[in-house]
Design a protein that fits this description.
Helix content is about 40%, strand content about 15%. By secondary structure, the protein is α/β, with parallel strands linked by helices.
């Protein structure tokens, strides 16, 4: 069996194929499928990138596997400032998107047959790579609050367990993991000699101010914590693929073997754009967060309209609403009917869970971050009008 045949096809690609069979409709398409900014980078960043393209020869050349030193230094300083901890440039590796940060970390952690614990619903690209790596996914159910339980996770650790993977704010549920929960998982991972992989792709859009947690204040944080981040989401650089892997220098040295055989390095133009974002766009990013939080608040305001027709909000974040639908049909059928009848494209919960997961079959992930208030009102009306 080939590596790629061990896993499922891209859920986003599958959902976009549904558009090919969408009947003509007077309703404009509302795309709530992909959790990425639709707008390009802000004008000052685009102007800076244009200058780099024209006048900076280094923007077109290889860098080291883990990127340019000045960008790694800025990322380390930004991480240290946000979390109140101590991170050095040698502990930061820049990657071609946050997905590659995850894959590189897993390449340094797991061998075929090793186990990795994933809370369910999980991020499907994490599940896909573990399949292709020959690793065993160990599902960790979450409760009604969409939060994983450290005690339940402890009961699922075996001699083959290499890591627990957490995503906060969560994709697909939007749930924000409280600091004490993350601390409990860190302590569990340390006690059992495994890694805690924490993906904070949507960190910059948390609903609460201040540091998301204090894990970096631990002087030995890199013995346990492997941290993942995405510049792509924060600065609208999705097509330029810029992420970060923050971990021990020893792990970066080992994982560099993977990077060197895949991309060699992230694009220098993307790296330099991320540097500009970190150093010049602090206020712009704060305003972007406020815009997304206002949209989240609008979803909450519209919720009674949905609840009146049987919908239930299970999770809400800066980018996603995880909605339990009121129908007897399975979520994939509900999502296809929603597209056919109401011209709304979103992803079924079944794309984020093992086959046969009953809770996933009751849910849809609705990515609302690219919709203004009028669009959100239209979305709520179409969901409320759906009949399956």
């Amino acid at each position: 069996m080939s590596l790629t045949s061990r896993t499922f096809s891209s859920p986003v690609t599958e959902a976009y194929r549904w558009l090919d069979t969408r009947p003509p409709s007077d309703l404009p398409l509302l795309n709530a499928a992909q959790a990425a900014p639709a707008d390009p980078p802000p004008p000052p960043l685009r102007a800076h990138m244009a200058e780099l393209m024209l006048h900076d020869d280094a923007a077109h050349k290889y860098t080291g596997n883990w990127g340019l030193r000045e960008v790694r230094e800025a990322a380390a300083a930004t991480t240290s400032r946000l979390y109140g901890g101590a991170v050095t440039a040698g502990q930061v590796g820049l990657t071609s998107g946050c997905n590659q940060a995850f894959v590189a970390a897993m390449a340094s952690l797991v061998a075929p047959g090793d186990e990795v614990i994933l809370p369910v619903p999980w991020y499907f690209n994490h599940a896909m790579w573990l399949d292709m790596a020959g690793a065993v996914k160990v599902p960790l159910p979450t409760g009604p609050d969409m939060l994983p339980d450290p005690e339940l996770a402890a009961s699922r650790i075996t001699s083959r367990t290499r890591a627990i993977v957490l995503v906060s704010p969560n994709n697909p549920t939007g749930a924000e993991y409280p600091p004490d929960l993350l601390t409990a998982f860190r302590d569990l991972a340390r006690a059992r000699g495994i890694a805690l992989v924490l993906d904070e792709t949507y960190r910059d859009f948390l609903s609460t101010p201040g540091a998301p947690h204090d894990l970096f204040t631990d002087p030995d944080w890199d013995e346990v914590l492997i941290h993942l981040y995405s510049f792509s989401k924060s600065y609208h650089l999705t097509g330029h693929r810029v992420g970060a892997l923050v971990t021990s220098e020893a792990r970066l040295e080992d994982a560099a073997k993977f990077i060197d055989t895949v991309t060699i390095c992230p694009t220098p133009l993307g790296q330099k754009a991320a540097l500009y974002g970190m150093t010049q766009l602090t206020q712009w990013l704060a305003e972007e967060r406020e815009t997304l939080l206002a949209r989240r608040a609008e979803v909450q305001r519209l919720l009674p309209q949905l609840e009146a027709t049987g919908w239930h909000l299970s999770g809400l974040g800066g980018y996603f609403a995880y909605l339990r639908h009121p129908f007897a049909a399975e979520a994939t059928q509900v999502a296809k009917t929603l597209l056919h009848d109401q011209s709304v494209l979103c992803l079924p919960g079944t794309f984020f869970a093992p086959d046969g997961d009953a809770e996933a079959a009751r849910h849809l992930r609705v990515a609302f971050a690219n919709m203004d208030h009028a669009g959100l009102g239209d979305l709520a009306a179409r969901l409320a009008a759906l009949k399956v």
